[in-house]
# Entry
Amino acid sequence: MKIMTLRFLNVLLDVVAKAAAQSLTEEQAAEGLASADDLLARLKQWRWERWDPQTATVLQLLPREVLSTILGQLEDRRDLAHLAATCCLLWCDAPAAPVRLVGPVEAELRRRAEARSLDVGYSLPDGAASWVPYLLQRELRDAQRRRAPLAAGMLYSVFVDVNGRLHTCGQAGGHGPALGHTGVDAIGPPTLVPSMLDRRIVSVASSIFHCLALSAEGEVFSWGAGDQGALGHGDENHRAVPSRIESLQRIESIMAGNGRSAAVDERGHLFTCGLARTIPGEEAWPTGLGYAVDLQTESQLTPKRVDALSQHRVVGVALGSFFTLAVTDAGAVFSFGSGTLGVLGHGSLNSEMLPRRIDALTQTGRRFVAVAAGGCHALALTEEGQLYCWGWGGANGYRQGANYDTHTRLTPGLLTALLGERVAFVDAKAVSSYAVTEKGELYTWGDRNCHHFGHGEVDEGQAAPRRVEMPGGVQVAAVALGVAHMLVADADGGAWACGTRRALGLYSPDAWEVDGVREPTRIPNLRVRRGLTRVRLLAG
# Structure
């Protein structure tokens, strides 16, 4: 506790100094610095107890304007969590009081939610003990959905390092230059993308043959195979290096899928582009762009807004092979595209051109916070950390009694194999899935793993979710699944990988691999953007 309190105060000193040049008067800034110096001196002699009356007295001296400004500039939400944990004056969460006081940390978390038009409300959901931990967990979870520090394609990998720089490694293959380097077909260890050195990247996404990168300014860059307009530049040209999609601005999250791309802006509007139909002719199916298209038309060359969801605030999107899932801030899940194998969850194999709410999920009474889509299966995550799955049973880990059911599920069912865990994040690719729990443990499952599930052996698949034994017991913060490899980021920014060597930067480009990496192996000389893990002190 003392260590993280001192860490916060060092941040506080730096932030107050910066704030002096912005919204604080010189007198306010000087008072804030004096109070912070006094508090830092006291805490150097502080005992290990959580609460100290002298600490509270000093914190009370901070002007409200100073404290609000400081909190507003703390980009790392863990610093907010640490601050709230050091002093109950700042927590100030007393639901039993006749008039409940809203402390500075809660006020800042509410302000951030309102800035993104997120409806927080004033009634705690079931299972939440108090507002500060609930809002912190919601903020952390929402940020994780919007920020991915790594992505995995066919035979290549993409990383965002701690400084926001873009790295790639692996093999480009014959379907477009996905490595981001002109004239390069293969890269050994992760290598900086030269054309992006002037941008601070916060998130990446990839399909089999194309990539997206999101900058801190909300710009979207795409490169790789441009077939069907997947890159969003108004043509079907391949691009060797990242190029900005000019029509997308103030974007918060990105997703790449089979010949398609998707982006969600700060207002919660969903944009899609790319492949419009599965096959030509009368039997063509929509692929999940979300708006009416002539199925004789092969592609949408530039991102177009999904107007059918304009009355909803989209907070998450997943692109399956030929279908799309979207989850809203209200906790509803919509699906659209090809209904093959029941992936839309509506109880039939019918396709849907426009987004349609999945009634079976609504009827559970749960609020959903994230979705995942593979080649032939889908998953949805509840706020309580439970998973629902549907589609082809061989990939969704569904258990019927003592056996695992490989039959197609046309409507969502609860994934009982993980009922004892609280899942924080979930994703899927092809016929594989993963889940990361709030304890930082990773579970993988699916069909034909090609030794990329991380369990140390090669088999025909992993029907049930199985925990991956990470070396040294490190906590997992983020994961990306490729077709035959997996990337993992730990809570300290370490990057790990398993699967086919040609995608991992763990091989010589001149030598063909004999076997893949079967267990998570640390990628040397690379630290990715630090993942967001659960703040146990607050969540309890």
User: Anything to note?
Assistant: Residues 1-6, 46-57, 399-404, 531-540 have pLDDT under 50 and may be disordered. Residues 2-115 form one domain.
